[in-house]
């Protein structure tokens, strides 16, 4: 007997739920281990349990109160870079995307192709050149040099993304504003920016998250522990002489999620529409 359409639908739904359950386990199990490890007593990973016999928050207190911990310094550095990177990326990207979306100039087409071309190469290929550049301008081992690289590196992808969103905004709005005497700056500020809030929220969130997650670039650029970001600083908890501080590493990792979650909650009203836009029209 042929399988009915209703039975097929039930089987498809069952497989979908099984897939979601599988992905939840893949993502949730390591996260649960990290949380539980952070509240386990001791510092050695080998003696930690998924369900600890005794729950303790001593590792969180150690991060903020121990004189030998530079965690607050790393947190401050990461927040400074993240906030300035998010704001700077929104300003720079929105202006560049507006120029490519609304202006007609020589090299515009090839500039867009160049943005696409630059996205094809991994950032690792430019590490040596970036280090030489920072050495030349005296910004090696500086959070400002790291911020400069983040701001420059985000331009190709984000400019293309925001430009695609700008292209979906009717040009008739620009023309109506010009009839009323508005210039390009006023059109950009009063029409384009308010309508582009969803995609700019996506740019802000992604560029706020990047400094918290990136390890390779800070590892190459920064050498002074007082300039470390969280990813680089926490690495030292499980490296060399700190190789047994896995529980403190877990506690520090959990706290990274707090500012990201706050920014996500602040921007969530724009994110859904922003994540599904930008690539619909180029």
Explain what this protein looks like in three dimensions.
Keywords: Cell membrane, Membrane, Sugar transport, Transmembrane, Transmembrane helix, Transport. Pfam families: BPD_transp_1. Belongs to the binding-protein-dependent transport system permease family. The protein is mostly helical and 282 residues long. The chain has one domain: Orthogonal Bundle (MetI-like fold). Helix content is 71%, strand content 0%. It has 13 helices and no strands. The longest helix has 34 residues, at 5-38. The protein is globular, with a radius of gyration of 24 Å. The termini are far apart.
Tell me briefly what this model is.
The protein has about 280 residues and is an all-alpha fold. It has one domain (about 85-280): MetI-like fold.
Radius of gyration: 24 Å
β-strand number: 0
Structural class: mainly alpha
What is the C-level CATH assignment? Mainly Alpha
Strand fraction band?
under 5%
- CATH architecture descriptor text: Orthogonal Bundle
CATH topology (fold) name: MetI-like fold
Give helix % range: over 70%
Summarize the helix and strand pattern as letters.
HHHHHHHHHHHHH
What is the count of helical runs? 13
Question: Mean of the pLDDT scores?
Answer: 84
Poorly predicted runs: 278-282
Count of domains: 1
The CATH fourth-level homologous superfamily: MetI-like
Q: Specify the biggest β-sheet.
A: none
The shape, in one word, is globular
GO cellular component, one term: plasma membrane
Organism: Saliterribacillus persicus
Protein name: Carbohydrate ABC transporter membrane protein 2 (CUT1 family)
Membrane topology: Multi-pass membrane protein
């Amino acid at each position: 007997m042929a399988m009915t359409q209703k039975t097929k639908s039930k089987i498809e739904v069952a497989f979908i739920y099984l897939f979601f359950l599988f992905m939840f386990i893949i993502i949730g199990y390591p996260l649960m281990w990290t949380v539980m490890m952070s509240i386990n007593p001791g510092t050695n990973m080998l003696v930690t349990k998924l369900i600890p016999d005794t729950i303790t928050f001593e590792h969180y207190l150690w991060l903020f109160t121990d004189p030998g911990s530079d965690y607050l310094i790393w947190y401050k550095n990461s927040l400074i870079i993240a906030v300035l990177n998010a704001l700077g990326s929104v300003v720079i990207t929105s202006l560049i995307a507006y120029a490519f979306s609304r202006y007609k100039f020589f090299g515009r087409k090839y500039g867009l192709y160049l943005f696409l071309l630059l996205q094809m190469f991994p950032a690792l290929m430019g590490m040596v050149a970036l280090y030489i550049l920072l050495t030349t301008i005296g910004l090696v081992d500086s959070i400002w040099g790291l911020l400069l690289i983040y701001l420059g590196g985000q331009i190709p992808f984000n400019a293309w993304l925001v430009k695609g969103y700008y292209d979906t905004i009717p040009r008739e709005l620009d023309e109506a504003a010009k009839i009323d005497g508005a210039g390009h700056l006023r059109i950009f500020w009063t029409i384009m920016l308010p309508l582009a809030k969803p995609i700019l929220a996506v740019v802000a969130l992604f560029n706020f998250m990047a400094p918290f997650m990136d390890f390779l670039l800070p590892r190459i650029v920064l050498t002074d522990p007082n300039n470390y970001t969280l990813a680089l600083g926490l690495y030292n908890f499980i490296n060399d002489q700190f190789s047994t501080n896995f529980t403190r590493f877990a506690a520090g990792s959990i706290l990274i999620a707090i500012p990201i979650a706050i920014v996500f909650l602040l921007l969530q009203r724009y994110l859904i529409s922003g994540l599904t836009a930008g690539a619909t029209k180029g």
